[in-house]
Amino acid sequence: MPKKNELAIEETLDPQDWDSMRELGRRMVDDVFDYLEELPQRPAWQHAPDNVKANFKHSPPLHPQLPDAIYDEYLDYIRPYGLGNNHPRFWGWVGGTGTVLGALAEFLAAATNTPSGAFSYISPNYVENQVLDWFKEMLGFPLEASGVLTSGCSSSNLIGLAVALNAKADFDVRKEGLHTAPKAMVLYASDETHSSLQKAVELLGLGSSALRRVPVNDVLQIDLGALKEAIQKDRDQGSSPFCIIGAAGTTNTGAIDDLNALADLCQEEDLWYHIDGAFGAWAAIAPRSKHLVTGMERADSLAFDLHKWMYLPYVIGGVLIRDEEIHRKAFSLTPTYLAHGAGTRGLTGEDVPWMSDYSYLLSRSFPALKAWMTIKEHGVEKYGRLIQQNIDQAHYLTALVEQEPELEMALPVSLNVVCFRFLRSGMDEAQLDELNKHIEIELQEQGLAVPSIVVIQGKKYLHVAITNHRSRREDFDLLVQEVKRLGRGFVPPS
Question: For residue 347, what pLDDT is reported?
Answer without folding.
Answer: 76
